[in-house]
UniProtKB/TrEMBL annotation:
<keyword id="KW-0547">Nucleotide-binding</keyword>
<feature type="binding site">
    <location>
        <position position="203"/>
    </location>
    <ligand>
        <name>ATP</name>
    </ligand>
</feature>
<dbReference type="InterPro" id="IPR036043">
    <property type="entry name" value="Phosphoglycerate_kinase_sf"/>
</dbReference>
<dbReference type="InterPro" id="IPR015824">
    <property type="entry name" value="Phosphoglycerate_kinase_N"/>
</dbReference>
<dbReference type="InterPro" id="IPR015911">
    <property type="entry name" value="Phosphoglycerate_kinase_CS"/>
</dbReference>
<keyword id="KW-0808">Transferase</keyword>
<comment type="subunit">
    <text>Monomer.</text>
</comment>
<comment type="similarity">
    <text>Belongs to the phosphoglycerate kinase family.</text>
</comment>
<keyword id="KW-0324">Glycolysis</keyword>
<dbReference type="InterPro" id="IPR001576">
    <property type="entry name" value="Phosphoglycerate_kinase"/>
</dbReference>
<feature type="binding site">
    <location>
        <position position="38"/>
    </location>
    <ligand>
        <name>substrate</name>
    </ligand>
</feature>
<keyword id="KW-0067">ATP-binding</keyword>
<feature type="binding site">
    <location>
        <position position="120"/>
    </location>
    <ligand>
        <name>substrate</name>
    </ligand>
</feature>
<dbReference type="GO" id="GO:0016301">
    <property type="term" value="F:kinase activity"/>
</dbReference>
<feature type="binding site">
    <location>
        <begin position="23"/>
        <end position="25"/>
    </location>
    <ligand>
        <name>substrate</name>
    </ligand>
</feature>
<dbReference type="Pfam" id="PF00162">
    <property type="entry name" value="PGK"/>
</dbReference>
<keyword id="KW-0418">Kinase</keyword>
Length: 398
């Protein structure tokens, strides 16, 4: 029996208003969704509830809007892709609470699917504010959380709602937890983690505990620049969070104590513009020009990453090694992903990767299907790896 209630515990839901928290935080370029994996993963829950006659009301965040509603962060950009993936009409509302939401819900027929606007357009969402949570709850009879990738956030729509409405785990939430437990519950050593990407400040703290659980931590992407700068190396105009230098140093100390190798890039591919085809050169990591930025790790670093993948029995990967969306800065991520896929196919490696952009990068490399398991979650996946309790999961527990 699952540790929490699932959709199997829901009976007679025809006509019931079911608030379903999904993660629609998908990569978008020029106003178009570039990877629909997260939508595909939540589709079974949405369609199952709709087929059972529920009024399915989708709640989601999109990006990190700072100052209330803005077109850039509107879920109306994502709605057409949701409709396409579901092959079902999707109604929309211009707000997730108040009159706009209530009147859209009142017009729903059994089986309809409605996508409410970005929950983060309200400050109350991230504060898990009880009044905001009540306003969300007013539109539902039942709450289903299918957003494992947002379950590390104790927000109104990911945690608060479970205190107001009968709460259930969706199919993806259930499947993610089961698959991670199966693949990483008792990982075969050596365990190598690759962490890269751009969300440095929200992920760097996680590394303090991760180094106690893995044998090597390979750092790439924007995360690597922060570590290299902490060591005193000039990183030019690279994406780097200089104020996290002390955290980075502390992680290196924790790693040494725990016997975890920290692997930083030896070389980088630098450019002066963040755009596809920008003029670029390979430089030693100690010689980054002051007016340039590292957009990918270099060939020597790729060899080192591959050597660590070869040594690993289990690979855990979150965050691309470079700005993979713009060629040629996808080279290291693609090479490492293909090598990990090759080792997995040969039966030498259990490979588990997670994160919205990481999934997109693996799809770009053409190997997502060949990994042992690909989670939709990045930060939540790393926190799960650390052994931390995820608020969105804990609140569903029986
Ligand atoms: N060196 C770099 N400089 C700038 N951006 C980078 C660099 N390396 C990776 N990125 C960016 O990191 C982003 C993905 O990071 P992140 O959101 O942390 O991953 P995920 O969504 O998989 O958890 C991508 O958009 C990629 O372009
Ligand atoms: O994309 C997400 O995180 P991830 O990139 O760490 O997987 C989730 O939707 C959570 O988003 P947030 O990190 O803005 O809270």
């Amino acid at each position: 029996m699952a540790a929490f209630k699932t959709i199997d515990d829901l009976n007679d839901i025809a006509g019931k208003r079911v608030l379903v928290r999904v993660d629609l935080n998908v990569p978008v370029k020029d106003g178009k969704v570039t990877d629909t994996t997260r939508i595909e993963r939540v589709a079974p829950t949405i369609l199952e509830l709709s087929e059972k006659g529920a009024k399915v009301i989708l709640l989601a965040h999109f990006g990190r809007p700072k100052d209330g509603p803005s077109p850039e962060f509107s879920l109306s950009l994502v709605a057409p892709s949701v409709e396409q993936v579901l092959d079902h009409a999707v109604l929309t509302a211009s707000d997730c609470i108040g009159e706009a939401a209530a009147s859209a819900v009142a017009k729903m027929n059994n089986g309809d699917i409605l996508l409410l606007e970005n929950t983060r357009f309200h400050k109350g969402e991230e504060k898990n504010d009880p009044d905001f949570t009540k306003a969300l709850a007013a539109n539902g009879d039942i709450y289903v959380n299918d957003a494992f990738s947002a379950a590390h956030r104790a927000h109104s729509s990911t945690e608060g709602l479970a205190h107001h409405l009968p709460a259930y785990a969706g199919r993806t939430m259930q499947a993610e937890l089961e698959a991670l437990e199966k693949g990483l519950g008792n990982p075969v050593r050596p365990v190598v983690a690759i962490v890269g990407g751009a969300k440095v400040s929200t992920k760097i703290d996680l590394l303090t505990n991760l180094v106690k659980r893995v044998d090597a931590l390979v750092i790439g992407g924007g995360m690597a620049n922060t570590f290299i700068a902490a060591r005193g190396t000039n990183v030019g105009k690279s994406l780097c969070e200089h104020d996290l230098a002390d955290t980075a140093k502390q992680i290196m100390i924790e790693a040494a104590t725990a016997g975890c190798a920290i692997v930083l890039p030896e070389d980088g591919v630098v450019a002066r513009e963040f755009k596809a085809g920008a003029a670029n050169e390979i430089v030693s990591i100690e010689a980054i020009p002051g007016d340039a930025m590292v957009l990918d790790v270099g060939p020597k670093s790729v060899d080192a990453v591959k050597a660590w993948i070869e040594r690993a029995a289990t690979l855990v990967w979150n965050g691309p090694l470079g700005a993979f969306e713009i060629e040629p800065f996808d080279a290291a991520t693609v090479a490492a992903a293909r090598y990990a896929a090759e080792r997995t196919k040969a039966g030498k490696l259990t490979s588990v990767a997670g994160g919205g952009d990481t999934v997109s990068a693996l799809n770009h490399a053409g190997v997502a299907e060949e990994f042992t398991y690909v989670s939709t979650a990045g930060g939540a996946f790393l926190e799960w790896m650390e052994g931390k309790e995820l608020p969105g999961v804990a609140v569903l527990s029986r």
